[in-house]
Specification:
This protein is of the alpha/beta class. It folds into 2 domains: 2-226, Rossmann fold (3-Layer(aba) Sandwich); 232-513, 3-Layer(aba) Sandwich (UDP-N-acetylmuramoyl-L-alanine:D-glutamate ligase), CATH 3.40.1190.20. The chain has helices at 6-19, 24-43, 59-73, 91-99, 117-124, 144-154, 194-197, 201-205, 217-222, 263-275, 290-296, 318-324, 341-353, 363-369, 388-395, 399-404, 406-417, 452-465, 470-492, 498-513; strands at 2-4, 50-55, 77-82, 106-109, 128-132, 160-163, 185-189, 192-193, 207-211, 227-229, 252-256, 280-286, 301-305, 330-333, 358-360, 382-384, 420-423, 429-431, 437-439. It has a 12-stranded mixed sheet with strand order 8-1-10-19-18-17-16-15-14-11-12-13, sandwiched between helices. β15 (358-360), α14 (363-369) and β16 (382-384) form a beta-alpha-beta unit. It is elongated and about 85 Å long.
Length: 515
């Protein structure tokens, strides 16, 4: 699902009106009607019930007026709190205000914050509250009467429905502009907005439903959208397995990982790759730890590698690794590998010289952060999977700066170094070297525990080994990884393990394949 900026949404509206001949009044009518239908589908019949509608000065207010009319026709008791004088309404909003006169709709013009006391009493007894204060064009801080109205809405104990986007959110960044409405449902018109998909905006959006309001599909298809919201269509990239296939059909992944005290990271990475359906997985590990891996993950093969210090991979292992890459389709390096000098030398040499798709995670990223100059012109495709702290080290900034603009940070790094970036977090981002990006909607706070990133690295590596392009491998992995965790969270809340997430992956992939 494509995500658009506020400017792009204005362009879509303009194209629908001026190029495709869709009247603007029709777009507003459709927006109100689709929202009304969404409310009925979720909350039942409103007959005899009070519905509070907060209408602002623009088209969002006009959408709210359409809903008020439709509610009145359904024998509900809508009350419109108009946050600007009626005489100041313009265009389609003014037309819909005039149409209200034919229906029993109570309209209260709110001139100041002090006049919202009655609104609070009505909200307290309402069946639902509709937020039609601001739309996607808001860029200033919410203040005055509008801020008081937002506070009144947020005090509601009934469902809160936002029109197009919650009031108080920047549509392009998800930043809260002082304060914002906290919606249970947001009905987005024509296309989802970036600020609804990324935090903090995503937190306040509630359930997101994108509805068709009459913008021709061709207009959206012609839009140069560089950001999308991942959904179950990622399962389209999974191909049926031939009954004549064998383990060699589904690739061979080499994982270089693990050190003393961190053997689990390597095994979880290998487990993730196996659960992705990879035909063969080999773990390249410090030779003195080999016995741990031999007995810890039976389905993986091991390659004992030279270690100059006990339990730490060394540059002296490079010739063996190079030989071991014969017949492999992809390489993962980093989980639990440590950052010792001899290990860092090995990671850097592999990054520069190996032509296979190479994923770098965890300690491998911290090694690269010490010398980002070597990221230029590697021998093959590179996928980096940082969490916010690792992303901050790679860019030489603070985690706070990363949190302020996750998408901008990931795009800057991906474009500058021509790599794929998977920036992990509550809204994991996938960005390609051209700056195209995807936001992942799956996952939950129960994933905030050790080993989750190791499994994800293995999943991506496994899909790469099976021949998936990096973009597909990254998007499918983050979506299925989060979805597997969501299934576990629905059963137990927090406390499930990374290995249990890996266990769920085959079932999730089968489900996605059959969508």
């Amino acid at each position: 699902m494509k995500l658009v900026t506020a400017e792009q949404m204005r362009g879509l509206d303009s194209a629908a009106i001026n190029t495709w001949g869709v009247p603007s009044l029709t777009l507003m009518e459709n927006a109100g009607r689709r929202t009304f239908e969404a409310m009925l589908a979720r909350y039942g019949e409103p007959e005899g019930r009070t519905v509070a509608i907060f209408a602002g000065p623009g088209n969002n207010g006009g959408d709210g007026l359409v809903i008020a009319r439709l509610l009145a026709a359904r024998m509900a008791q809508p009350v419109v709190f108009l946050l600007v004088p009626a005489k100041e309404l313009k265009g389609d909003a003014a037309v819909n205000f005039t149409r209200l006169h034919e229906f029993p709709v109570r309209v209260i013009e709110v001139a100041s914050a002090a006049e919202l006391d009655e609104a609070a009493a009505i909200v307290a007894e309402s069946w639902a509250v509709v937020d039609g204060i601001f739309g996607t064009g808001l860029t200033r801080e919410v203040s005055g009467t509008f801020a008081a109205a937002v506070d009144t809405i947020n005090a509601a104990s009934c469902p809160v429905v936002a029109l197009d986007i919650v009031s108080g959110i920047n549509a392009d960044s998800g930043r809260v502009l002082g304060l914002c409405v906290e919606a249970d449902l947001t009905v987005s018109f024509g296309a989802a907005k970036i600020g609804q998909a990324v935090y903090p905006g995503r937190r306040y959006t509630g359930e997101l439903e994108v509805v068709d309001i009459g913008i021709p599909p061709e207009a959206l298809a012609d839009m140069d959208c560089r950001l999308e919201f991942l959904d179950r269509k990622v399962g389209d990239w999974l191909k049926p397995r031939s009954p004549l296939s064998h383990k060699g059909t589904y690739g061979h992944l080499l994982v270089l990982a693990g050190s003393t005290g961190k053997t689990g990271a390597a095994m979880l990475c290998g487990l993730g790759a196996l659960r992705a359906g990879t035909g063969l997985v080999s773990l390249g590990v410090p030779h003195d730890l080999n016995q741990i891996f031999e007995t810890g993950l039976w389905e993986a093969m091991t390659i004992p590698l030279h270690a100059t210090v006990r339990g730490i991979l060394s540059i002296e292992a490079y010739p063996v690794i190079l030989d071991s890459l014969t017949g492999k389709q992809a390489l993962v390096i980093g989980p639990g590998i440590g950052t010792a000098g001899e290990t860092a030398e090995l990671v850097k040499k592999l990054y520069r010289e190996i032509g296979l798709p190479l994923l770098v995670d965890a300690d491998g990223l911290n090694i690269l952060a010490t010398d980002t100059g070597l990221l230029q012109k590697p021998a093959g495709p590179r996928i980096l999977t940082p969490h916010p702290g690792e992303m901050a080290r790679l860019l030489g900034v603070t985690p706070v700066e990363i949190a302020a603009d996750r998408l901008g940070a990931a795009r800057e790094f991906a474009e500058r170094h021509q790599v794929y970036v998977v920036l992990k977090g509550a809204d994991t981002l996938v960005v390609d070297p051209a700056g195209n990006a995807a936001v992942n909607p799956t996952g939950n706070p129960g994933m905030a525990c050790g080993g989750m990133g190791d499994v994800l690295a293995g999943l991506i590596g496994g899909f790469l080994a099976q021949g998936m392009p990096p973009w597909h491998a990254c998007c499918l992995a983050v979506f299925s990884h989060g979805l597997a965790a969501d299934l576990l969270a629905a059963e137990s809340g927090a406390g499930y393990l990374a290995s249990e997430v890996a266990r769920e992956i085959p079932f999730v992939l089968e489900e996605l394949k059959n969508v």
